[in-house]
Amino acid sequence: AMEGSAGARIREGDCAVLKRGEVFKAVPVLRRRKIIFEKQWFYLDNAIGHIYGTTFEVTNGGNLQPKQEVEETTTETKEAGTDNRNIVDDGKSQKLTHDDIKALKDKGIKGQEIVQQLIENSTTFRDKTEFAQDKYIKKKKKKYEAVITIVKPSTRILSTMYYAREPGKINHLRYDTLAQMLTLGNIHAGNKMIVMETCAGLMLGAVMERMGGYGSIIQMYPGGGPVRAATSCFGFPKPYFDNLHEFPLSKVHSLLSGTFSTETLPSDPEDNALVEEESNGLTEEKQTSLQETEEEPTTEAPMEINQAEEQETVDINAEDVEFKENKEKENKENVREKQMKQWERRKKLTETAALLREKNADGLIVASKFHPTPLLLSLLEFVAPSRPFVVYCQYKEPLLECYTKLRERGGVINLKLSETWLRNYQVLPDRSHPKLTMSGGGGYLLSGITVVLDKGKSDSSNLEALKMEEPSPKRCKVQDLHC
Amino acid sequence: MSFIEYGDTIKDGDTAIVFLGHESMFPVKVQHGTVTQTKYGVIRHSTDLIGKKYGSKVTCSKGGWVFILHPTPELWTMNLPHRTQILYSTDISIITMMLELKPGSIVCESGTGSGSLSHALIRTVAPTGHLYTVEFHQQRAEKAREEFREHGVDHLVTVTNQDVCKNGFGVSNIADAVFLDIPSPWEAIAHAKSALKAEGGRICSFSPCIEQVQRTCLAMEEYGFTEINTLEILLRVYNVRTISLQIPDLGKAAEDNSGTGFDSSSPSTQGSPGANLQQGTVQFKSGVPLREMVGHTGYLTFATKS
Question: Pfam families per the record (chain A) (predicted)?
Answer without folding.
Answer: Gcd10p
